[in-house]
Backbone:
């Protein structure tokens, strides 16, 4: 009687011991896995927030740093004194955007996204990459200087497809608040591609997508030329989307918001975060495909009724959809010049084609069985998915425990 009881107690304690060990083993495994994810995602963030290597001697930078000259100071004083009159244009994670007279003032709130670039000639001081990148590609317009070729009513408000800088400085929004970087550029009345699409959707309800495409395709081709220049200089924009394409006029669009510009071989482009966001390995091809997605999204949004467009886009017979699916099939090796060439071949008035061998039309299989309402939703869903340009880092920040350890920053600024 006693022996079986003893052996069953022994057996039970052995099996609970085993279970306990398995649980401990699983916990160690989970911790190890979590630690690995922690390291990979911290590496990703460190790569993303690594500085952009910009030219160190471009026009405007050294002559205005660290102390701006009198004319610039006068303009800055005017801006600071009239802060109450600034009109909010928008607010993002990194800061706010305001309009004042013919200027746009962008502020960068300290402590949000880390500033990536070192201020040349200053010890341990960083600034938003957008400032030196805009100086390098857009140049500097000196204010109130009649000798400046950009001064006067006929002055150009853009330079080679980029926004020039009118001023940059540090100032406190309120006496009790820390100083923030400010970047001032000329105001483009047309806003962004989103603004234009909204205006068109209200004005041109009766006009079809073919007309919008015919009107704006040459402008898009010109934008690709600007992009080609950026890529040839060795840089990618890295944040092409409708909100970052600004409208100078009907025939000229601008590559705005250079805050994410990076050299082609920047470590971010080989990080896990870049891959997790389904970006193309070659950041130049990635910029080009994102520009095409932005253009098609612009056409879709500019229509009062997008159903006809969504169907045509997924069928892949119209010039604009042929251009898109062909480029997507060839996405990894796409360049701005190649897309521009293809855009000239698939021009808006080109005849329809039914043999779309190199396209991948995406009409859902169950489409014919759906009722009208579900058909419209399914088409919209498929098109919106194909045109996504969103890039997120929420999960990366979560795994990298930035709430506890902050964002990893690798660059140290020397003189
Ligand atoms: N120079 C400008 N002229 C007109 N609108 C502008 C200008 N700069 C910015 N905007 C508007 O403000 C929005 C946000 O500006 P952006 O530079 O992209 O800042 P963020 O870093 O917040 O994305 C743009 O989408 C555009 O509508
Ligand atoms: Mg932006």
Residues:
């Amino acid at each position: 009687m006693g022996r079986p009881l003893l052996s069953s107690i022994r057996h039970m304690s052995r099996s609970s011991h085993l279970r306990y060990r398995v649980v401990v083993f699983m916990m160690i495994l989970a911790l190890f896995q979590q630690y690995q994810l922690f390291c990979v995602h911290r590496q990703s963030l460190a790569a993303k927030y690594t500085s952009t290597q910009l030219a160190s001697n471009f026009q405007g930078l050294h002559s205005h740093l660290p102390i701006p000259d009198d004319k610039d100071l006068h303009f800055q004083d005017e801006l600071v004194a009239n802060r109450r009159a600034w009109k909010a244009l928008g607010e993002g994670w990194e800061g706010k955007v305001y309009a004042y007279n013919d200027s746009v003032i962008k502020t960068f709130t300290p402590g949000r996204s880390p500033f990536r670039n070192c201020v040349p000639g200053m010890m341990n001081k960083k600034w938003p990459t957008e400032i030196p990148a805009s100086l390098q590609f857009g140049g500097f317009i000196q204010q109130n200087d009649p000798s400046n070729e950009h001064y006067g009513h006929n002055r150009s408000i853009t330079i080679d497809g980029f926004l020039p800088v009118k001023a940059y400085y540090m100032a406190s929004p309120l006496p009790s608040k820390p100083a923030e970087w400010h970047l001032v550029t000329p105001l483009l009345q047309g806003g962004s591609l989103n603004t234009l699409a909204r205006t068109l959707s209200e004005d041109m309800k009766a006009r079809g997508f073919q007309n919008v495409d015919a009107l704006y395709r040459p402008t898009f081709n010109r934008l690709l030329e600007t992009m080609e220049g950026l890529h040839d200089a060795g840089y990618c924009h890295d944040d092409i989307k409708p909100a970052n394409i600004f409208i100078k006029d009907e025939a000229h669009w601008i590559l705005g918001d250079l805050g994410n510009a990076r050299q082609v071989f920047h470590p971010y482009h080989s990080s896990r975060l870049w891959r997790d966001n389904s970006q193309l390995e070659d950041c130049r091809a990635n910029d080009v495909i994102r520009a095409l997605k932005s253009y098609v999204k612009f056409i879709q949004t500019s229509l009062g009724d997008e159903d006809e467009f969504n169907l045509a886009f997924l069928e892949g017979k119209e010039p604009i959809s042929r251009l898109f699916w062909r480029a997507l099939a060839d996405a990894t090796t796409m360049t701005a010049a190649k897309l521009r060439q293809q855009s000239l071949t698939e021009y808006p008035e080109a005849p329809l084609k039914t043999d779309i061998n190199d396209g991948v039309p995406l009409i859902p299989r169950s489409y014919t069985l759906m009722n009208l309402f579900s058909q419209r939703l399914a088409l919209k869903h498929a098109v919106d998915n194909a045109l996504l340009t969103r890039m997120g880092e929420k999960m990366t920040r979560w795994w990298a425990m930035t709430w506890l350890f902050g964002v990893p920053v690798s660059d140290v600024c020397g003189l």
Observations:
- The radius of gyration is 27 Å.
